[in-house]
Design the sequence.
């Protein structure tokens, strides 16, 4: 059983719903990433998604796209991110999931890059722009290293495509609370219907993201899903100088 599986199993047995914060590696600096991860772990984060900067984010709104641009300007590369994670891993019990564009994965060796992520200490990956028809080698490599591999499921996903997406998920499923791009919202998303629809088709934990911005949103999502993913709100506040652990603590309040 991989680390992500264990975390969700423990959460379910304890009646808890994990918070999964998202951070951009390299913003505000790559050197600050280990401290940011440790701070979020102390605050109660169970799994953290680490975004590997990419020049043309597919589904990211302006907050995350700008953070990735700043990181790239600082010279952040996938190799440097893995080096930092490798050094930080020993001091972390929580799960680490890489969020990475398929362009980077392909450029860095496809399945070989998945193996490198595992060796660096990542417990899973999300490749949000991967072509479902071409994802098999990446999924199999993740399986070999007992890593989570999460595909994105939108509210508009057809039943046929949903079946094929779920067949290429392990560890958890990433459900989009809304169609479109990431970003903060005022109103809590209505996720009961999409969660129920997907839960009827899989026993995998369901983590919901896109537009989850406040503690009230986290509570609303976790009434139905198995975990809440918070991205833009956290990235914006950390970039503005707030302590990541304090932000996570407030989201869990």
Sequence:
């Amino acid at each position: 059983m991989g680390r992500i599986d264990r975390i969700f199993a423990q959460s379910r047995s304890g009646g808890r719903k994990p918070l999964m914060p998202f951070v951009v590696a390299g913003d505000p600096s790559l050197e600050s990433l280990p401290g940011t991860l440790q701070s979020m772990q102390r605050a109660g984060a169970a799994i953290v998604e680490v975004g590997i900067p990419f020049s043309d984010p597919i589904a990211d709104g302006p907050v995350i796209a700008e953070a990735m641009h700043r990181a790239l300007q600082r010279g952040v590369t996938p190799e440097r991110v893995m080096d930092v994670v490798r050094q930080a891993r020993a001091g972390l019990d929580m799960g680490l999931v890489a969020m990475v564009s398929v362009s980077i994965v392909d450029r860095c060796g496809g399945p070989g890059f998945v193996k490198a992520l595992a060796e660096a200490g990542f417990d899973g990956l999300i490749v949000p722009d991967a072509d479902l028809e071409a994802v098999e080698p990446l999924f199999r490599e993740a399986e070999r290293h007992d890593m989570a591999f999460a595909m994105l499921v939108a509210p508009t996903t057809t039943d046929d495509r949903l079946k094929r997406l779920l067949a290429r998920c392990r560890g958890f499923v990433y459900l989009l609370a809304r169609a479109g791009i990431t970003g903060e919202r005022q109103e809590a998303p209505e996720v009961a219907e999409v969660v129920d629809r997907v839960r009827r088709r899989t026993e995998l934990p369901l983590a919901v993201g896109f537009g989850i911005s406040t503690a009230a949103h986290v509570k609303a999502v976790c009434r139905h899903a198995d975990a809440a993913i918070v991205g833009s709100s956290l990235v914006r506040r950390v970039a503005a100088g707030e302590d990541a652990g304090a932000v996570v603590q407030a989201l869990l309040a």
Q: What stands out?
A: The CA atoms of residues 45 and 86 lie 19 Å apart.
